Amino acid sequence: MRMSLLHLALQNLRMRKFRTLGVVLAIAIASAALFSSIMLMKSMSSSIELGMAQLGADIMVVPGDAEPEGAILLGGAPEWGYFSLRYAEAISSLEDVAGVAPLAFVETTEGCCFRSGVYIVGFDREKDFLIKPWVEKQVGELRAFDAVAGAGYDWLPGSEVRLYGVSFTIVAKIPATGVASFDRGVFIPLDRLYWLSKRSREAGIAGMPLEQGEVSALMVRLEPDANPVSVARAIEFQFPELRAVVAKKALSNVKRQMQVMLQSLLALSALTWLTAVILVSVILSMSVNERRREFGILRALGATKRFIFGQVVVEAYLLATLGSVLGMLAGYTFLALFQDVIEGYLRMPYLLPNELYVALISIATIDVALILATIASVYPAYRSAELEPYDAIRSGE
Length: 397
Description:
Helix 11 packs antiparallel against helix 13. This protein has a nine-stranded mixed beta sheet with strand order 6-7-5-8-4-3-10-1-11. The protein has a two-stranded antiparallel ribbon with strand order 2-9. It has helices at residues 5-15, 17-55, 69-74, 86-92, 132-138, 180-183, 190-202, 228-238, 247-290, 292-300, 305-337, 339-346, 355-385, 389-395; strands at residues 59-63, 83-84, 97-107, 119-123, 146-149, 160-163, 166-173, 185-189, 214-215, 217-222, 242-246. The chain is elongated. The protein has two domains: 5-50 and 254-395, no CATH class; 54-245, no CATH class. The chain has 397 residues and is an alpha+beta fold. The longest helix has 44 residues, at 247-290. It contains 14 helices and eleven strands.
């Protein structure tokens, strides 16, 4: 009966369950670190690109004491308070400014609404160029108690949400933007948000902090050939109490931060892989020493050196494949289940890549595992193949 490399390798791994489990676990941890690092960086990078593209603004104007640039454009709901809407008209009159879209953000709290942590976003019915065009294309004009939901909620059109004592009907959902306050937002006209704020105070509901004529940010769109940095400087010179954040500059800064984070993650992943390779090599060497008599008998029965060499390598391949698959499954599960936690900790948008990219990362991770398994098994495999049949059988007695 012809001997099978795969059959013998599987039999040996089954006979040494504890050792097999230890190697698989080491490779799984290393694979999870590599897979998660690449997925995390790709998710954040894609989310940032998508968010900036869908925002459609060149500059974001906020109070002077606002958060860092990356958090302003891509983080959670603004936490810097409100300022007067009157700045919008003055900024609109500046050279190279094509439009100014006011936005007001309110985050719901316990006691006011059906759920806390919902971002109510008010947009101007006339001046808005972010939300209004999409709403008009999808649903036309919003009625008095209509609202549009962000992609982060599972509400279907027709769902009812209660905000500060008033029921609103979700009539549509906007696509994912990668901007946290948009993806978790409920969008209503700005004048309706002012009315809701006034009513909440009059009705004795948990008071909304927004006052009539206040906004959280002004989104500025420039003429095609305008220089965003020059316009931002002009805004800050004329209104020193405000801060003008250039979208492309902020994006560049965020990407640099991500590059540093990626290097750290990859260094950690490399260290984990180095540990795994050493562990696999040591365990396979121990296995060769324990199986000298087995290899001697196989050689006596006609097995070639190439066959013995291949058996050790195949065992390493099986361990690497199983470990890498388990590691990737664990990494993907963690990234998917704790998406909100990761996003909150990093204060950056985070959207999982599409299935094709996940498949490509998975293939790359398995390839890395197989290559490193080959490296780890070469020396133990060579030692096993060079054993002389008679000496190997006698040494195993």
